Amino acid sequence: EAQVTQNPRYLITVTGKKLTVTCSQNMNHEYMSWYRQDPGLGLRQIYYSMNVEVTDKGDVPEGYKVSRKEKRNFPLILESPSPNQTSLYFCASSFLQGGTEAFFGQGTRLTVV
Amino acid sequence: GIQVEQSPPDLILQEGANSTLRCNFSDSVNNLQWFHQNPWGQLINLFYIPSGTKQNGRLSATTVATERYSLLYISSSQTTDSGVYFCAVEVKRTGTASKLTFGTGTRLQVTL
User: Fold this and answer.
1) What is d(CA B99, CA A98) in angstroms, rounded to the nearest whole number?
2) How far apart are CA A22 and CA B77, in angstroms?
3) Per-residue pLDDT for A107 more than 80?
4) Do A90 and B43 make contact, defined as CB atoms within 8 angstroms?
5) CB A31 to CB B97 under 8 A?
6) B81 φψ region: left (φ > 0), alpha (ψ -120 to 50), beta (else)
7) Is A82 near chain B, with CB under 8 Å?
8) What is the pLDDT of residues B53-83, one digit of tens each?
9) Phi and psi at residue B15, in whole multiples of 5°?
10) Who's near B2: CB < 8 A, 6+ residues apart?
């Protein structure tokens, strides 16, 4: 089954404790991205990647890192989480060709206290 | 950047009723998708519909790209249809994929 898998689904952590949210897709997609969803602000892109070792900033990259060492995986790294990063996070993937369907993971609900 | 407006913002229906949700966008698009966000926060793909009409069970969607709008029809609504419906578009440009820009959503509540 074609899918995007994120882990964990729920996470509560403390300020400053490094964490990684994993994302994996099985559709051989080149384009992967991370979004965060906040009340009143909608979904906003954090980072994206067009292929292995090719990443770039989206609209709200501050406080986040990503890596793309393998085509299928695109982890989101919070080196020093802060309470303003409490949010619902989604990973998405699609083919590199513009205009193709994007698939989203199940979401990760992160709370930073 | 592109503007994506959805209407109505909120909708309350009795079970069995029909409804139409609208998405207007301000620029040419490569891609348009409809999603349902359920109460647990999951985004469920409903339709990939950059143009034309598609149907899936009680749901159908139509996109008129030249007039920059899309409609989502829900017939014989059920309580499990409750949640927020998002329209998302990818701005048309040559070459590679780009981000999806989401509308503000329509919050649907279906009551017994």
Assistant:
1) 10
2) 36
3) yes
4) yes
5) yes
6) alpha
7) no
8) 999 999 999 999 999 999 999 999 999 999 9
9) -55, 135
10) B25, B26, B27, B29, B89, B91, B101
